[in-house]
């Protein structure tokens, strides 16, 4: 199957723990994961991992991608350095290509106005309210939310974030998706048998 790659944004201070479930299980399902940075210069995660981006943001086009994943990072709240990623998210959504944002990236999208007209979640409602956005009425108290091509989640919900991404891209659905979530979020041993039977491990 010829699939377009999934693009994972990488930038200094990116939160290592937030996207690993999503990218690992997408890759196991046959999706190519490509990293996109502010440039092609290496970046360092919060955990000190050195990441060499596959391409620069200026070279990323929505039509070449299946999904853009935006992890949280300290830089979302301490500078405007990552604003170009939020603008790229707008271009993706305008082109009908989905975006998934977690933790601080949700604040970046709020500042860009992308949460004003979509149901969404994040770390906590007042965190997004502090951005001055107009979407407070669409905030949902949930582990992760998908609306109009946009997945959002807070920093403590990497498994729910991945669940929504796997659903969005058709990797798992129904009983299998539920079992995947129960196994990796709840350590439910009974879920393993469901995944094994479905060949989804």
From TrEMBL:
PANTHER family: DJ-1_PFPI DOMAIN-CONTAINING PROTEIN (PTHR48094:SF19), PROTEIN/NUCLEIC ACID DEGLYCASE DJ-1-RELATED (PTHR48094). CDD domains: GATase1_PfpI_3. It is an enzyme of class 3 (hydrolase). The keyword Membrane does not apply. The keyword Cell membrane does not apply. Residues 6-167 form the DJ-1/PfpI domain. Keywords: Glutamine amidotransferase, Glycosidase, Hydrolase. Its EC number is 3.2.-.-. This is Type 1 glutamine amidotransferase family protein. One of its GO terms (molecular function) is hydrolase activity, acting on glycosyl bonds.
């Amino acid at each position: 199957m010829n699939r377009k790659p999934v693009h994972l944004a990488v930038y200094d201070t990116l939160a290592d723990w937030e996207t690993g479930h999503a990218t690992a299980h997408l890759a196991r399902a046959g999706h190519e994961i490509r990293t996109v940075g502010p440039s092609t210069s290496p970046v360092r995660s919060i955990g000190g991992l050195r990441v060499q981006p596959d391409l620069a943001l200026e070279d990323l086009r929505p039509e070449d991608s299946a999904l853009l994943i935006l992890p949280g990072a300290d830089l979302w709240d301490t500078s405007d350095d990552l604003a170009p990623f939020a603008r790229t998210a707008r271009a993706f959504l305008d082109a009908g290509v989905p975006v998934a944002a977690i933790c601080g990236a949700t604040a970046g999208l709020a500042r860009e106005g992308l949460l004003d007209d979509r149901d969404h979640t994040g770390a906590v409602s007042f965190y997004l309210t502090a951005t001055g956005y107009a979407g407070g009425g669409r905030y949902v108290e949930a582990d992760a939310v998908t609306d109009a091509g946009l997945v959002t989640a807070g920093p403590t919900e990497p498994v729910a974030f991945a669940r929504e991404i796997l659903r969005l891209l058709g990797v798992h659905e129904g009983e299998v998706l539920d079992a995947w979530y129960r196994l990796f979020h709840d350590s439910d041993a009974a879920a393993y048998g469901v995944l094994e039977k479905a060949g989804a491990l």
